[in-house]
Amino acid sequence: MRVYISGVHSGPNPSPGLGLARSLRAAYPDMHLVAVDYSIRSSGLHDPHFDDIWLQCPWDQLNLELYSKQIQEVLDSGALWLSGLDLEILWLAHVLGEHPNLLIPPASALSMTAKPEIPAHTWLPMKIPAHISVTSPEWDLHSFCRRYGWRVFLKGPNYEAREVDSWETFTSSRSCLSETWSTDNLFLQAHITGHEESIAFAAYRGELLDCVYMSKRSMTGEGKTWAAQIAQLPTNLLAPLQMVVRELSWTGGAEVEFIRDSDNILWLIDWNTRFPAWIHGATIAGHNLPAVLVQAATGDTVTKASLPISPYFTRIVIEIPCNSYFPLPPLHEMWPDPLNVNSKHPSGMPVLGKRLKPLIRQHHQRKPEIPALLVDDIQSLDLAHAKTPQRLYLEGTIKDRFERFSKIASQLTDSQLKVHIAYSIKTDPATRFLRAAFNCGMLAEAISQPEVERVVSSQFSLHQVVLNGPAKWWPSPPHKPDDFKIVFADSIEELASYVDLSLETIGIRLRLPSATSRFGVPLDTFPSFRRLITTISKFPSECPIGLHFHLASNQIGVNRWWQLYDSFLGWAIAIQRTTGKLVESLDVGGGWFPDDADTALLPQFTKLVNKARDHLPNLREFILEPGKALVQSTMVLAIRVVEVRCLSSSKREIVTDGAIADLPMSPLFPHRILTCDEQGLWNPVSRGEDRILGRLCMENDILASNVHLPSAMKPGDLLLVCDAGAYDRSMSYVFGQG
Ligand SMILES: *Cc1c(COP(=O)(O)O)cnc(C)c1O
Questions:
Q1: How far is the CA of 495 from the centre of ligand 1 (A)?
Q2: Under DSSP, is residue 453 helix (H, G, I), strand (E, B) or coil?
Q3: Among the residues of 248-288, which ranges form H helices?
Q4: Ligand 1 atom with least separation from CA of 629
Q5: What distance, in Å, lies between the first and last C-alpha atoms of the chain?
Q6: 347, 350, 484, 693: least CB-packed within 10 angstroms?
Q7: What is the C-alpha separation between 431 and 433, in angstroms, rounded?
Q8: Confidence of residue 134 (pLDDT cuts 50, 70, 90)
Q9: Residue 280 phi, psi dihedral angles, 5° rounding
Q10: Angle of the 395-412 helix axis to the 372-379 helix axis, nearest 10
Q11: Which residues, listed in sequence order, are joined to residue 636 by a DSSP beta bridge?
């Protein structure tokens, strides 16, 4: 009996070939095993378990038509083919279809197990984690990452997953993965906290032959199994697995990978269409899945039964001599291989992926939606005379946003409790916004004395100013702490300095133990909590307490923000109980992205305030300090094309008179960009291969990558960069202008 086994690399991220060979050898000592691979760097080629080596050219040089004929001959001669390479399986399923000796699933089953939807999951008691295709508008991708608190993975359709914790890591990982796998067809998936487990099974023509349940005990840095426990499949999973195998007419091996969360929900993350690389671990535990598959396909009974040796297995690293016919070439330093593709993927899957592009499902590109109010605002701008780069106020949007926040505050205010919005001055101290805040009855939130001076000269009284931050008296204090509405001490030292003043409220910013922040009074140890309580007790006994926390939801995620709010209320109760003083003021900071404020904060604001009332019956005042939620979307930056550069028929770069100096946030979040069509209508640019470059002679002055620009774009044309208010204005700087 001859068996061809493809994909035999054995490194930190191995293919299953070597494990298949060892398991088959254990059951059929006389079997003739042929190792197949596509690079001499595939280390398993040198392993003595193989009787023969069939080394192919790399996939980019391989004549696929001829090669498929050769494989057909191999199969027709009576040999079996066990593939350990997902993309080879995809290719073989399409070119050879079903052959009794080709032990792979049918093409229809492959599409039912394709990521990220994995349609076959509906037969199993498992869920699919939230995900979004990377071909969606960048605006939506950023929103997805915020929703899941930047605990997301970027994944390819077949291989590779990278952790994404910021927009910058997302954009660099995306260009790396799309270059390696020659595809835009990537997706983002929410991280699930839990234990990684999987099911490996063998099936022949829709019949489940045997299966095992694996839970990881040790992993490599890449998350690959290094040690694990093998057990019987829980009975509630067996019947669904039999059913899905039957429905998909599965032939061959498979591994179904999932995460078990703390509520015992199983989240399916991958369905590999081949045996896992740890398959010999199952054999050690008494389940020789490759052997039962060969037995079902050939009718040849296993000559040596697999006896369970241990339910646990681990990997070790050993050195073996190389086959003298296949000496190894030197490392790649001499050749440009910046992504390390050849040594990382010796079986050449990135190259095959490129050749199989038509077989892998592609998603359509969508454009971001532009709110109607923004379109109206833009239509009313006088752009013909714009002295670019020029920032322009969107009056309708300013009115809408300031009124929306102040209306909610006044609706929630009653005789018991006053709800305030305090505009964060540092976000953008422009007079236009300070006036809008004052006219809407908002307070102002300052972090320095120059900010205080600025709002006082814009009609605000000191009693309408909330003072916050680590250096609020800098550079010199012209006012006293008791002149302000409320002052939140950022440290124990600062709090202690107010003990002898006649403050109306003892304001304290808390550093919540479950989040990382450099600000506020720490509470994470008993001594630090005791120090806080002792310091508070030095104030007059009738003096009430005000508490503040500020953790940006656009960083930590909206759901996590709500959890931290609950924890904040818990600490407020603890402080009230231990000091005997009443918590009368709460202030929950800012850090909301405008869209999240609209969809997750404002609609829930009543609930937020009522929760505080329920927990703290003496509460008199509730403050929210929005900055960018109010002003980020209220400005556009008009820029003009200086030069159009054609790199290829599908790829262009435009140099503009804008720069990162005018848009310092451009690497940190995607901005919606509009171009004007012949009818004078402004349309969002969709994704593509073009780039918008800045005017500065600086490598990092790139305003947008991966955009598709109108073909008629020429020097002098205008572009509008939306979302250019807030820190894009307040942190903009003059550079390269003599
Ligand atoms: C900066 C700041 C804000 C506003 O933050 P945004 O991200 O602009 O919403 C609110 N409160 C405090 C204490 C701040 O320092």
A1: 21
A2: helix
A3: 279-284
A4: 9
A5: 80
A6: 693
A7: 5
A8: very high
A9: -70, -20
A10: 140
A11: 392
Buried b (16+ CB within 10 A) or exposed e, 500-534: eeebbbbbbbbbbeebeeebbbbbeeeeebebbee
| One-letter amino acid of 435 | R
Cα–Cα distances (Å) from 169 to 150, 151, 554, 667, 701, in that order, read: 10, 12, 15, 10, 17
Q: What DSSP designation does 381 have?
A: S
Read off the tokens for 656.
């503009």
**Identity of the amino acid at 30:** D
Q: Note the helical H segments in 52-194.
A: 64-76, 86-95, 107-112, 138-147, 167-181
Task: Tell the residue nearest (CA) to atom 12 of ligand 1.
Answer: 589
Backbone angles phi, psi at 429, to 5 degrees: -80, 15
Confidence grade of residue 305 (pLDDT, cut at 50, 70, 90): confident
Could you give the CA distance from residue 216 to residue 222 in angstroms, rounded to a whole number?
A: 13
φ, ψ dihedrals at 270, nearest 5° = -160, 150
Check: CB of residue 726 under 8 Å from CB of residue 704: no
Structure confidence at residue 359 (pLDDT) = 79
Pocket test for ligand 1, best of 625, 633, 731 (most atoms within 8 A of CB): 625
The mean pLDDT of 179-199, rounded to a whole number, is 92
Give the number of the atom of ligand 1 that is nearest the alpha carbon of residue 632.
8
Distance 589 CA to ligand 1 centre (A): 6
Reported as type and span, the H/E element at residue 5 is strand 2-6
Packing angle of the helix pair 395-412, 605-615 (nearest 10 deg): 30
Q: Retrieve residue 34's tokens.
A: 């042929």
Tell how far CA 234 is from the center of its chain. 32
Which residue among 146, 423, 445 has the greatest number of ligand 1 atoms within 8 angstroms of its CB, and so is best to mutate?
Answer: 445
Strands 545-548 and 506-511, how do they pair?
A: parallel
Element (H, E) at 465: strand 465-467
Cβ 142 under 6 angstroms from ligand 1: no
Count, residues in the chain: 738
Q: What is the pLDDT of residue 334?
A: 54
* 309 Cα–ligand 1 center, Å: 61
16: nearest Cα among 335, 343, 356, 276: 276
Whole-angstrom distance, CA of residue 60 vs CA of residue 67? 12
Instruction: Name the residue with tokens 């322009």.
Output: 392
Mind listing the pLDDT tens digit for each residue in 400-415? 999 999 999 999 999 9
How far apart CA 34 and CA 53 sit, in angstroms, is 5
Residue with tokens 């298949």: 20
Minimum CA distance residue for ligand 1 atom 10: 590
Verify whether ligand 1 is closer than 6 Å to residue 592 (CB atom).
Answer: yes
**CA 316 → CA 12, 276, 313, distances in Å?**
11, 17, 10
Pocket of ligand 1 contains residue 725 by CB under 6 Å: no
Give percent above pLDDT 90 in the chain: 86
**Alpha carbon 360 to chain centroid distance?**
23
Bridge partners (DSSP) of residue 231 are 213
Rounded to the nearest whole angstrom, what is the distance from the C-alpha of residue 530 to the centroid of ligand 1?
28
Per-residue CA distances from 570 to 489, 565, 575, 579 (Å): 20, 9, 9, 14
Query: For the segment 3-42, what is each residue's pLDDT rounded down to a tens digit?
Result: 999 999 999 999 999 999 999 999 999 999 999 999 988 9
Ligand 1 contacts CB of residue 595 (under 6 A)? no
Give the three-state DSSP class for 199.
strand
Q: How far is the CA of 427 from the centre of ligand 1 (A)?
A: 7
